[in-house]
Every structure is written in C-alpha cells, then in structure tokens.
Amino acid sequence: MANQGIFKDYIPKVPSLKMNQSQLMLVILMLIMVTNILTLYTFISPQANLLYSISRSSKFSTWESELNSTRDEVILKDLQIDDLRNELKSAKSLIENLQLHLNMAVKKSLEVRYDDLIDDLNDEAKRAAKAHQLPLGNTPKMGKEILFSYGAGCLKYKQEFKKYMSYQVGGECPMDDHFAQTLMLIGCEPLPRRRCYPKSPVNYVEPTPIPKSLWSTPSDTTVIWDPYPCKNYTCLTQRWHYPGTYDCSDCFDLGGKESHRWTYDKDLDFGINEVLGLKPPGTIRIGLDIGGGSGTFAARLMEKNVTIITTSMNFDAPFNSFIASRGLLSMHITISHRLPFFENTLDIVHSMHVLSHWIPDIMLEFILYDVYRILRPGGLFWLDHFFCFGSQLNATYGPMFERLGFKILRWDTGRKLDRGIDRDEVYLSVVFEKPMS
User: Counting Cβ atoms within 10 Å, is residue 359 exposed (0-12), middle (13-18) or buried (19+)?
Assistant: First the structure.
C-alpha cells in the first residue's frame, strides 16, 4: 500500500475531455473520408502508376526469362535425344556384329564343355551323367574316367564323333570297329546309325548247326580280322600260351577250361545245376549274362533249355562274332549302357569278374539297381567271383548289397592270389533273390 501511494504522487494529472455522441460520430466520419481520399490518391497518382508498371514489367521479365530458359532446355533435350538415337543405332550395330562373331565362334568350336551341359541338373541326375574317375587309375583301354551312356558323350568328343560320321553315303563303311568301340567306351553310346554297308567276310560259310555249334570253333571266314592282333581262331585258342595280357585269354579254347566251367559246385565255383535247383523246376527260362566273354555260360544254360543273352565287348578279339557263331545271342554294349530290358522280366542275371571294384562305387550301385529293375520278383542275381580288397567288402560293398534289398541264398568268399598275397584281395560269389513283393 505504501508503494502505491508513492506512484500515485509521481503520475502527472491529465485534464478530462468530455464529448457528446454527435461530436464523436462526426470525428469518425471525417476519418473515414480522409482514409478513402488517401487511398484513391495512391492509386491514381503518377508514382502509383510507375510502381505498378515496374512491378508488371518485372513479372513479364521474369516470365520471359523463364520461357527462354525452358526453350533452351527443350532444345538441349532434343539434342540429347538425337545423340541417344545415334548411340542406340551404334549399339544395335555393335550387337549385331557381336552376335555374328559369336555365331562364327560357335560354329568353329571343336568341343562342347560337357560339364556345362549337365550343370543345371539335380544332384541325382549329375551322379548318373557325370564322368567318374576310375579308382584304379588310368587304363590303356578306357583312359582315366568313365561315363554313363546317354549319347551325350558324343558331344564331349566332337572331333571323334565327326570322324566316325565321315563316310561315303551308300558306300562301304570305314573299317573302324576299334575306333567305334573306343567311342562307346568314352560315353558315345549308343552309336548313331550310319548310311553305309559294313564289310562282309570273304568266302563266308554257313554256320555249324545247334547243338554241335555250342562247342565247336567256327570257321575263320566268319570274321573280319582286320581290327585284331590274331588273324585266325587258331591264334586265339592258343594265345593263352603266349606272353602278354589279353582279355579273357583262354576263353576261345573250348576244349580247355571252358569245357568244364560251371559243371561242378565247390567253394566259390557254384555249379549251374545247384543254382537252378534254388528255384522250382522250369521257372528259370530267360536271362542275361553281363560281360560273358565267349558265351560259355549261355551255352551251358541253353543245354538246360534256358535262353541267355550275352553282353560282350570286342577287346582285342571278335567276341561277339564268336558268340553268334556258337548259335547264341550276343549284345555289343558296355557296362555303362542301361540294360535294354523292361522291368520285372528276366528270371536270372549272371556276371563273372566284370562287376567288381574297378568300377566307381556310385556307378556300380546304379548298375546293381538296374539289375534289380529287370529281374522279375523271385528272379536270381548270380554275382560270380566279384573281387575287391578285403577292407572294402565289409566297409563298402556289404552295405551296398544290403541297401539293394536282395535276399541272400548263397554266399562264399575266398582269397584272390593271382596278383600276390600281399594285395589283400578277395573273391565273393553270391546268389541273390529279388523279393516276391
């Protein structure tokens, strides 16, 4: 309150102004009139016109500048579009030239990369189609790897394929049996058909009638001997006496070991009568011998009224011609070839020596499943003198056979000593039965 008194004394006193209502209204009217007059003067005065003119001129100038700038940009864009069109024309021409060169390069290419052909397959298809390294290393007959056969191997070896298909149409085929077989072994199988005539034997004679033909050496005139080291059957039947390594060296001598094969049953050597006796009489009628040499297994079974087809290759001798001369059915295919029989059809499949540890494991398993496929329920798979290292039998092949699901009817093992006791190699002879269901 004291402070309020001090400020009251400090504020100066203003005289009081008193107006009646008429005077107040007059003052407001005058103010309105003066305001309107000033506004009108502002718009009609020369200075106002000058300011408006300057403002409008400034706006026109800005618009004109913007228009000019836009026009320049449009012109620049047109030029850029023209340049882009020219660049596209040049690029198109470059692409056309590049495509032409690529086409020429493809035509000049001597070999298609096989790995690229199978690169987009699934894993199981790759296992079936890719090249597999031979576990025992390089061999003079097959090289260092082996392919499953789908004919695609022909694309891997285009030069050789072209050579095989180079001949005179309608003329005599080249004498290239050895070369053709080499193509088969490297995966070009089945071989393509050719429009030429094979060479025929000179002075060909009619074959010996069955059953005598089963155990008779055929005439030399039944064979084209050009591809082989021996030039007659006398040489072939005696070659096991000579130094050197031959495929099935003694199997052309029908009076030697061949004359008593499978006629007795002892240890690893199962007899035909004993194996056929595992099934009801007459139920083993048709079958296959894989890699059957000179056809003696088929001859033995023909004597039992069983028809056997023998697959064989002509390694350094005319095996297929010899088999056919005995009155037996031969089939010239490699082990890589899918067995050309329908599923669940054959009563028996036999193989001696051929299916063994020299074949890559995964490939052997595919082959064994193929055998399972073509056997009828209750059919027999006679694996005769399969050989491997002792350590492999339990670790690798025992489990592989178990996976197949065969029933074991006979099983016998023994030491393989022909290449030395220190190699720890073993033989296995076994008769499997395909389950009935």
Answer: buried
Q: What is the per-residue pLDDT across 210-237, written as a single tens digit (0 to 9) for each?
A: 999 999 999 999 999 999 999 999 999 9
Q: Up-side HSE of residue 310: CA atoms within 13 Å toward CB?
A: 29
pLDDT digits (tens, 9 = 90+) for 106-140: 555 544 566 776 677 667 666 766 777 888 777 77
The Cα-based distances of 158 to 110, 126, 187 in angstroms read: 6, 21, 12
Helices 21-44 and 46-108: crossing angle in degrees, nearest 10, is: 50
Cα 62 to Cα 53, 54, 58, 191, 203: the distances in Å are 14, 12, 6, 85, 112
> How many other CB atoms sit within 10 Å of the CB of residue 244?
9
Both tokens of 136, joined, read 């025992």
Pairing of strands 307-311, 375-389: unpaired
Please state whether the predicted TM-score (pTM) of the whole model is above 0.85. Answer: no
Contact 351, 387 (CB under 8 A): no
